[in-house]
Design goal:
It is a single chain. The chain is mainly α. The protein has helices at residues 2-35, 45-54, 66-85, 101-121, 125-156, 161-169, 178-194, 213-216, 223-247, 258-285, 294-318. The protein starts with a helix and ends with a helix.
């Protein structure tokens, strides 16, 4: 009974992320369009775009190697594996023991590295420029994610993410502590940078001097481009889901209850949709910062994460 429930939770998490990620992107575009006074293309538009790209013939630039061809599939595969590990619906799954903080961050880093190598593999100026910028951002983002979640792991005594979420469910006041507030601020900025959102990057621009993520994938077309776009959508949905699981964990199943597991997808979808709407609304008001100011912004988020670790260690050491 418990094993069947755990496997159902893992499958449910993967299906929810894969099926819901394009819908989340469409929802955010719709919210942004309405706030800007436009009608918008509709929530299902990302799925329509993917269907159109899948019907086209794949094109591989001359001179590219295995890195260019493998990167889209590797980006999607690493994110799907991370979706199975992160406790979005339940903390009691057969893979919970492997859902360590370092493993999840390493999976995100592997997908980022694959795209950067693909950008370099094309041999174009834009690809190399985008890869260089992406790795600069990643060098500051990954430590911030590690430290911000590590601040929450100190009270739980483990870096296992399901254990952190389960421990936080029993102590909801922890999120209002200085360590919790600093950690959520740092992780929120890291999520914006990791997913290429404003103010770090603009996913809807193609201006050569400002783009980061788009510069690496300019040479992709057809099904490969569909996989790259799906991978970006999956990362956005998963990171927002991780943010909601860590700081708003209510609704996540912790025991062997089919009723709790049935309600978890609905509550998770609501939380992620709210976060997506808030992010889309913020992007209407924010402006993209200059490229040379991005390291300053990310360094500030890293400092917040470091302060959250210090505060968490001090509070738990004093108690």
């Amino acid at each position: 009974m418990r094993n069947a429930l755990g496997y159902a939770a893992v499958v449910g998490q993967v299906v929810a992320v894969v099926a819901g990620a394009p819908l989340l992107t469409g929802w955010m575009r719709l919210v942004r369009a309405r706030l800007e006074g436009r009608a918008g293309a509709g929530v299902l538009q990302p799925w329509r775009d993917a269907r159109k790209l899948l019907r086209k013939e794949p094109v591989t630039p001359v001179g590219t190697g295995p890195a260019f061809r493998i990167a889209p599939a590797l980006l999607v595969a690493t994110t799907v594996v991370a979706a199975a590990l992160v406790p979005l619906l339940s903390t009691a799954t057969p893979v919970s023991g492997y859902a360590d903080l370092i493993v999840v961050v390493a999976l995100f880093a592997l997908g980022t590295l694959a795209l950067a190598l693909a950008g370099l593999d094309t041999g174009t100026a834009f690809g190399g420029m985008g890869a260089s910028r992406e790795m600069t951002v990643a060098a500051l983002v990954e430590p911030t994610i590690l430290l911000s979640v590590f601040a929450l792991s100190i009270p739980a005594g483990t870096t296992n993410i399901p254990a952190i979420v389960a421990d936080a469910l029993g102590q909801p006041a922890r999120f209002a502590s200085p360590a919790g507030l600093l950690a959520v601020a740092a992780l929120a900025v890291a999520v914006l940078a990791e997913t290429g959102r404003i103010p770090v990057d603009n996913p809807s621009t193609h201006l050569e001097l400002t783009m980061i993520h788009e510069a690496m994938v300019l040479e992709y077309a057809g099904p490969d481009l569909a996989l790259v776009e799906l991978g970006a959508q999956l990362r956005l949905a998963l990171l927002l889901g991780l943010l909601s699981s860590l700081f708003v964990p209510w609704g996540i199943a912790t025991g062997a209850s089919w009723a709790a597991l049935a309600a978890a997808p609905v509550l998770c979808a609501v939380k992620v949709a709210v976060l997506g709407a808030l992010l889309a609304a913020a992007e209407v008001c924010w402006a993209k910062v200059r490229l040379f100011r991005v390291p300053e912004l990310l360094a500030g988020s890293f400092l917040l994460a470091l302060l959250s670790v210090s505060a968490s260690y001090f509070l738990n050491g004093a108690s």
